[in-house]
Amino acid sequence: ELTDLMGGRLSAMSEPGEGSVFTLQLTLPVAAVRTEPMAALPDSLSVGIFASSDLAAVVYTEMLGGLHLKTNSYALTGAGVDILMQQIQQGVAPAVVLLDTRVQQGVRGEIFDCFERLPAAFRPSVILLCDPDEITTYGESALTVTRPVRVRDLAQTLALALTHRARVAELDYQ
Length: 174
Known about the structure:
Elements: H1 2-5, E1 9-15, E2 19-25, E3 46-50, H2 54-66, E4 70-73, H3 78-90, E5 96-100, H4 105-116, E6 125-130, H5 135-138, E7 144-146, H6 151-173
Parallel strand pairs: 3-4, 3-5, 5-6, 6-7
Antiparallel strand pairs: 1-2
């Protein structure tokens, strides 16, 4: 009776000694899928990556390449931080840095210390790639993308980072 009320069919097949198979067929409406356009990002955007492993760096590079963005992966050592600081001084640094929170705490601290010494207009925006339970560690004001990292989430957060960076540069200029 319930099957009939739901517009379905119930059938049964049975063979002695073999068992029975019951089949319930229901026609369900397709859920409407809400799609939002991906954030528009400038083609000239350069993104730096401090990933926890070479494999993670390759995955993030591929994701960003799919968004047609230039990327640069940095070594997880003081040398990687030094290279990024040289690029900043030369005016060729990435506007945004993705920092995997699985990177050792010492390296993360060194990166943040270097950024804090820069004038706000030259400081790259930082997006933390973290596990869902880590968000409270960094606070709600931090720009974060939780694992598993999805291209759409990354694009939207990159757009937010650029907006924030433009406002900081404008205030620094005034």
